[in-house]
Amino acid sequence: MTDPVPSAHAHAPFAPAAARATVTAAALAARHDLVVCNECDAVHERITLARGTVARCRRCNALLGRGHVIGTEKLLAFAIASLLLIIIGNSAPIVTLDFQGVVSQATLPQAIEATWNAGQPFVAVLTAATALVFPLVFTILRLYLLGSLVRGIVPRGFVPAMHMLAFVTRWGMAEVFMLGTLVAVVRCASLTSATPGIGLFAYGAVTLLITAITAAGTHNLWKRSSEIGGNA
Ligand SMILES: [Zn+2]
Predict the structure, then answer these.
(1) What count of other Cβ atoms lies within 10 Å of the Cβ of residue 175?
(2) For the chain, what is the mean pLDDT?
(3) Which of 3, 25, 177, 230 is the most buried (most CB within 10 A)?
């Protein structure tokens, strides 16, 4: 893992930096068989990576891709499971409070609405975005991309969808929501009886699945699309 694996062939660009950035962006959009280093813009040929190997930039040693044990078909299964668990996580209670016999339950959307109504719109929007919207968009994009790629089709809008996937991967923070909720449940437990609900367990599973999917990276998706040979 720590050893640099010279498994990607570098084509060191000689153009000035500004021009190079334009060329590499255009090259990536049109050529799924090329990978551009995020750190130094060097262009490499995308190759199949064996399980357990990593590809690093020949110029700056930055990580380019990882040969992961989870294949494309398994990633699709993970994404389907993730979508089902997000639906359960948003329809089942995340916590049940029992205060002197008065029982109240709240699902995630209800908790967000209550936070908004309590005069905390910033917290409500932040929670909705990081715990609900980004994980959901992440999962739907993965389903869209993987659902087509496993059938040997490059989906329409493949490159913009991959860029959007990178964005939501960066901003989806279901694990932060999980930790925050657990801390809140523990703190509530000293005042009243607080029991984690099915929704919270579902979100725990979503967090694990999204972590596994994210760890697999996007190299497989780019490689599969270049093998199919379509330009979306
Ligand atoms: Zn580099």
Answers:
(1) 18
(2) 78
(3) 177
Structure tokens at 67: 């040969």
Q: 157 C-alpha to center of ligand 1: Å?
A: 27
Alpha carbon of 80 to ligand 1 centroid (Å)? 34
Q: How many CB atoms lie within 10 A of CB 132?
A: 20
Beta strands of 43-153 (E only): which ranges?
43-45, 54-56, 63-66, 95-99, 102-106
| Ion ligand 1 — residues with CB < 5 Å | 37, 39-40, 42, 57, 59-60, 62
Instruction: Specify whether the CB–CB gap between 141 and 168 falls below 8 A.
Output: yes
User: How many Å lie between the centroid of ligand 1 and the Cα of residue 121?
Assistant: 41
H/E element, 111: helix 108-117
pLDDT in tens, 130-173: 888 888 999 999 999 999 988 888 888 888 898 888 888 877 77
52 or 59, which is more confident? 59
- Estimate to the nearest angstrom the gap between the alpha carbon of 205 and the chain centroid: 14
CB under 8 Å to 36, separation ≥6 — which residues?
A: 24, 25, 27, 28, 42, 43, 44
Tell me 50's DSSP state: P
Would you state the structure tokens that stand for residue 160, as one six-digit string? 């913009």
Gap from CA of 18 to ligand 1 centroid (Å): 16
